[in-house]
Amino acid sequence: MTATTAMTATHSLQPRSARTTPIAAIATAPGRGGIGVVRVSGPDVSAIAQAVCGQALKARHATYLPFLDAHGKAIDHGLALYFPAPHSYTGEEVLELQGHGGPVVMQMLLARCLDAGREMGLRLAEPGEFTRRAFLNDKLDLAQAEAVADLIEASTEAAARSAARSMEGVFSDAIRALVEQVIHLRMLVEATLDFPEEEIDFLEASNARGQLANIRDALGGVLAQAKQGSLLREGLSVVLAGQPNVGKSSLLNALAGAELAIVTPIPGTTRDRVRETIQIEGIPLHIIDTAGLREDATDEVERIGIERTWQAVGRADLVLHLVDAADYVEHGLSEIDDAIDDRLCGHLPPGSPILRVVNKIDLAPKVGEHHFGADRPHVVAAIGPNPAEVWISARTGAGIDLLRGQLLRLVGWQSGNEGTFLARERHLTALRNAQSHLDLAEERAAQEAQALDLFAEELRLAQDHLNSITGEFSSDDLLGTIFTRFCIGK
């Protein structure tokens, strides 16, 4: 690829044109409500508006009128809005009919629209098809389109605010800034490849290594923010593990603030996983209480529960290994708990930490200020085979606030980050791949001119991965996977 093609690569797919068949759908959630919306998008939508509303509509003005059936009788009364192309959500002509939100009324109004548009091929919209057309018509890039779904599905206020920032283009702007820097560096590299007779020392004259270092630093910052946004979107899977009767169910109840799990002094009370989602600083935490781990379980149901515990550990972002405070103070970590630690490390996904939770300090008379103080609870900051440690009482609530803070610290959450944008695993993968190619580009740069063509190729591959985030280069399979997960009508 020459320097000229490098400059124009990001614009090679524009303009993008969507399919021209008109589509219609109910845009509000199923069920009864005060208001329901039927949305139509495509060419010649004004003709459908004329048929259903009995008059031409003024662009971008809400008009209160009756919605008419084929015989001119009113189906409902409501507001009609007409948006001419390209000044609409999809970039096409759009009609929105806002009536009463009863399911029968909505279905009658949708059926009327489909009947009025039959000759022009009006059909029911597929899931996410309105937003897909907005993407194909350059009203949104792919990251912004995904943020639309993320905003709808946001489970916390922090996630909703971050999704809104992504929808406004904060994430996309950061990606485009990176792409522009990569393109600029590619131009310099490829110009040197095209004119070798100049015999200039490219790496020195253009400060290529300095530019590459700046790009790598900027990418690292975007990746760090994306990881924070991914936590907001996906949440964390936190598994409570340990021997029977160490207080796992009590801890679940304490974290959730409700009596969700049955608590008894009888070992093995919990036979299956109990799952509850809580919020800490806007991060969804999916807490999973599991069956107590022991080798001598004779009950078939309990053995199945233990096996499911290990399955849950294998998918966990973080494991809390609970131990009994009285035994821990008296004898240290028991052989059984030590074996559980080893097995947890073997089952956990790479990078997922273990937090040792020393529970029942209220029942351990030998626990003193050096273990757990009101102002300075005992915390050991190691991770892995020697896990971090927090001392609590799930029954009295002592240390629970400290525990909540440790959960977020161990997975890298930074509180007070108002600039976070929401990100998906797809985005993280693309950013990591781009980072890997920039790392390889640094290695090629160290080889001077002998590897200049390989240096240019690594930059090109990094740019492709960045472009995939905003959809400059996206396969139909990827688009299908993304938009079919949207709700119908969006």
TrEMBL record:
GTP binds at residues 245-250, 264-270, 289-292, 393-395. (6S)-5-formyl-5,6,7,8-tetrahydrofolate binds at residues 39, 96, 139, 490. PROSITE patterns: G_TRME. SUPFAM superfamilies: P-loop containing nucleoside triphosphate hydrolases, TrmE connector domain. GO terms for cellular component: cytosol. One of its GO terms (biological process) is tRNA wobble uridine modification. Mg(2+) binds at residues 249, 270. Binds 1 potassium ion per subunit. Residues 424-458 form a coiled coil. It holds the Pfam family MnmE_helical. It is found in: Cytoplasm. Transmembrane segments: none annotated. Its main location: cytoplasm. Keywords: Coiled coil, Cytoplasm, GTP-binding, Hydrolase, Magnesium, Metal-binding, Nucleotide-binding, Potassium, tRNA processing. Its cofactor is K(+). Its EC number is 3.6.-.-. One of its GO terms (molecular function) is metal ion binding. Residues 235-412 form the TrmE-type G domain. It is an enzyme of class 3 (hydrolase). K(+) binds at residues 245, 264, 266, 269. Exhibits a very high intrinsic GTPase hydrolysis rate. Involved in the addition of a carboxymethylaminomethyl (cmnm) group at the wobble position (U34) of certain tRNAs, forming tRNA-cmnm(5)s(2)U34. Belongs to the TRAFAC class TrmE-Era-EngA-EngB-Septin-like GTPase superfamily. TrmE GTPase family. NCBIfam families: mnmE_trmE_thdF, PRK05291.1-3, small_GTP. Homodimer. Heterotetramer of two MnmE and two MnmG subunits. This is tRNA modification GTPase MnmE.
